[in-house]
Amino acid sequence: MAAPFLKSIGYTPTEEEANNFPHTQTPFANVEQQLRDKISSYIFYELAKTTKSKLSYSDVFINTCANAILGQFREELLIQLYQAFDRYRPLQCSVLPGEYVQAIYLTRFEQEVLCHPERVGVLQDSRLHIVFERIQHCIDSVIEMLIRLEADQGEIQALLQKENDPLLKASQIEVGCSDPHNLQRAVMIVTFECGERIVYKPRSLRNEEFINQVIGFVNSVQSRIALTSLNVIVRRDYGWQEYCASCAPRNFEERRKLHERLGALHAIAHGLCITDCHHENVLFFGQYPYLIDVETLGHCRPKVEIDIQKFLGIDSSYEFPSRTGFFPEWLAGTGDDAPNSIRSGALLKNDKISSTKYESTFLGVGTDGIILDQIKERRSDLEEELVSRLGVDAIEFVDDIESAFSDTYLALIACKDKILSLLTPQDDIISRFIFRDTHDYLRILNSMRYWGLTDPKRLLSRAFKLNPHLPQTILFSEVEAVLNGDVPKFEVALHERLKLFDGKNWIFLEFYLTPFEMIERQLRSMSADRLVFDRRLIIGSILSFDETLRKGALVSESQSDFRSSKKAMHEPILNDTHQDVLINGHNKAALVASLHRLADGTRFSYVPMEVGFGRGIAGLTTYLSVARDIDPQTGTDLFDLLLMKISSAIEHQTLALHGPNSHLVRLGLADGLGGLLFSSALMSNFYKNPILDKILNSIPVDALISRLSSETKLDVFDGVAGLLVGLAAVAKKANDPSRLALIEEIHEVFLKHIDELTSNRSSVGVAHGLSGVGLALAASSTHVKNVDIDSVIGAILDIEQLHWQTSGVVEKFHSRCATSNSWCSGTPGYLLLRKFLGREMENDPVYIDFNSSHIQQNETLCCGSTGEWAVRSILNGLDGVQNLPKTDFERTKYMLRDWSMFNGVSGVELVTTSPKLLKRIISLGIL
């Protein structure tokens, strides 16, 4: 069906007139002119039917609207006309020669387009009808805007302070000034005859209104940094925003104040979980920055149970709240353009700057056919692109940024209740959830327009890289939007769960935190004590970016010295015992890429959220304590972030141990307090941090002792033996009497359960069996001597020997991990215990069997080749990387669940970053 505007009652040429069109130098000029007339006529008659025309839109103004609409689609229209004509011409039969035939065919084709557009739509692979439909949609959006302009005339006059002007007359519009909103409706700028301008956005500006109110609260608490905002008129489905021209600061003082205010805005964005503050969403007027697009207010965190990276099949979509995007950062990646791949932030011109850019030049009609375009490659000078922009100046004003961030952060704390009171009754705040960068959609959209990709399957496989973990509803929603020339919007209302629009229906996805919950939790967590850490995130982003620039020799020597002195102020202090972080011969760049993947991982539920060591954030933090030197800024920021989470978790655990649910608190190494203690002891070798001391001193000894009397779980991963491992590791640091008393109490627990331990029903292995209990008791016996405990260890050795000699024991080993060589449930625990006790094993059949087979299943520490390699290194006295398991750090698929120590990436990467630490973990701290 043809677009309605094509059937406008405006002038349509007859076939005879169309045949007599003059042949111009510009192909399809006649089509453009006729389309322009049809658009003007359509707008005029539609406005006449639906408005009272109080604003008396003139013919000249309506013609400018038509020009603006057609200009928005001109390039795409010409492409499709060229393509359609190229396919149209072979369908015609004629013996007329050369150029004359070309002119005749072109004239006939123009006639078909204008008089019988429905015929063009059926031409093979033509997308011309889609272009007409998009033009029609834009026309409808403009008409809708003009009707709303008339309805809101009074408030617009007040906003522009033109109350005395009885009738603001529009003289010009600009269409497509930003990404489309609300089912492809265009953003527009309206210019009035008096010279004033206003921005029309086809979505509610409640978010912007809320930010303006927050800025007012902040200014009332602290007046040193005067933040300003753009006034808005809020409607349910659309809004009007004050227009502000962009201009650069004029001198050094204005540049300093601009960066100072950016620091203040960064604090607000951090507190309200706003992301995506790149150059298109932040406007600069001299020393004043303005947030002009806050769709990502209250950016929600996915549910813990969902592995978003696998679920969505993408590398980076969820923006961590602290990474607001104001300041430039280098994107993680391993491709050819990764070293020059930048997310610009507010201060750089391009969202992503790569070493190669492409531009397309249309050559027009040729006698041998139509050459659609010729791709020309040009190199961009990265140094000129960056140094000429304001982004590289951030390091120069880092102190001003830091001070403004702190003042505004404290102001937010002071007025957090007022802010939350604004949100509570509101239901119409909408937050955009970012699945992919807008840049990715636009790149695919441009490819569609240039090359006519119309097959959705082709688009899925080539453009979106079809992934089996990504729901088809999301993929087809993206395809539907891009086919219609839109950027997909996945939106979530303030009190709702995530939903996406597939062109016809809203599809809901369940997430852990709504935008309101996200903002509330973020504001509630902010405190004067936390300020030091949160402030470091913003400074870390600036310093990290600047460090990369200096390595690339993009700044002068004097600038480099200045920036080095700034960076030295924020360097972490490392302990001298920090050894074997990198092993000679291994690819440091690959490990850096891995650490950046980890930084991206913190944006997902990909980071484990349990407390403990084996399956929780304590193990990941332990890995970072040795791996952060690979990329000091990224690693240290992540390390401090996770330490804060651990500190918060231990406070909750402490309360739980005293409360009615104390029986639910885990004690073991995998997810409980034992793992927390074990992690703290390991990390204290590598990093001095007051939070570690807080963790070590926060364990409620009395509550634990009362809990132990009723505890029945005895194993390492989930039970009392795991707590014993943690206490033994801590006792190596300091023989605190209270902790030693706790070890004695745990010994009594094991003596109480001696019959259960030595029964034939007991299992084997480190995780849940006798080997782990024996290692825990052996480790703790070096601090608290107990003859009875030595007898328990001897009994464990005997029952393990009996297990091995009993038929069917191999099947027991295999039942948990499909191999008897796995560290957690196989024979390695049996061998480690005997190694520690000095037993002879050379002729032991268990030792012989262990050395004769290898794990092929996976690479994890718990059940895979990493744990097996560490055990072999201990048993055979290897200090280096002999027989190092093959580990490809460049791959994107680990076949691991997360970044945990036992089942995830952290344990695997310790093979390369710190094999000494890995062997300490494998031996439960004995070595």
TrEMBL record:
InterPro entries linked: LANC-like (IPR007822), Lant_dehyd (IPR025410)
Pfam families referenced in this protein's UniProt entry, alphabetically: DUF4135 (PF13575), LANC_like (PF05147)
Domain of life: Bacteria
GO terms for biological process, alphabetical: peptide modification
Every Lantibiotic biosynthesis protein dehydration domain range: 130-492
SUPFAM superfamilies given in the database record: LanC-like
Signal peptide extent: none
Protein name as it appears in the record: Type 2 lantibiotic biosynthesis protein LanM
Lineage, uppermost ranks: Bacteria, Pseudomonadati, Pseudomonadota, Alphaproteobacteria, Rhodobacterales
